[in-house]
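User: What would this chain look like folded?
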Amino acid sequence: FKLEELGPYFIQKWFDKSTKEKSPYIINGCRKLCKAAFNYALRLNLISDNPFANMPRAQQPEILRRRFTIQEIKEVINVCKKDFPEFYCIFSLAIFTGMRLGEYSAICIDDIDFNKNQIWITKQYTRRKIKERTKTLSSRRIVDFPPSIGKIIKWHIRKYRIFSGYLFKGKDGNRPVSANWINSEFDKLLQACGYSKYYMRVHDLRGQFVDILHTLGLPTVYISRQVGHARTSTTNDIYSAIMSDVHINAKTALEELN
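Assistant: Here's the prediction, encoded as structure tokens.
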């Protein structure tokens, strides 16, 4: 077969079948992968043009990204601490540091500097495997956390007697806690607080964190580095649903939420 013929073939298949069976998100992901692969072949002079270059993107529905108000955050935190203690530290890190699920799942005790209130992000736990790399180069970073979060981490360490290895251990004690467990506990927490389990995803807590820092007037460059974005435009485009009820400085705000 000729390499150039693969493009039109896949395009036809996608629009004839995949659009009926796959989500726009999956289709666009495949499109991106194929476009990059054919661009690489183009640079190697294996083909004369990229048939995916002009392939239109599948239309993705607009996603309503919900956010908690400051008062709602306080209420959810109190319920989490009281009724879901094992999830309390994970939830606190997710909402007050903006880390990805795979990043805080992979945290080891040695990654935490309690003197500087910082966590080193150098790896991730995804698809039940520890990867000694982050999602992107910019995701390899140092994350700041307020002193109150440091107290929660120390409380978690004492309560669950975790003095080495992963901060959040799975059932066997050798691997990190699974993404399924984290998502399940978050769903239960939402329902315990009177929300639908579909109200928000765990990943949306990153947006919650960024919205708070945006509202508090912190520089976008700093916010982008905190959450591991390569470009500040990503931070502005994806996480700009500014909450209207926050008008105090960052440190005070984060402290008052705990």
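Residues 241-249 have pLDDT under 50 and may be disordered. If you want, I can go into more detail on any region.
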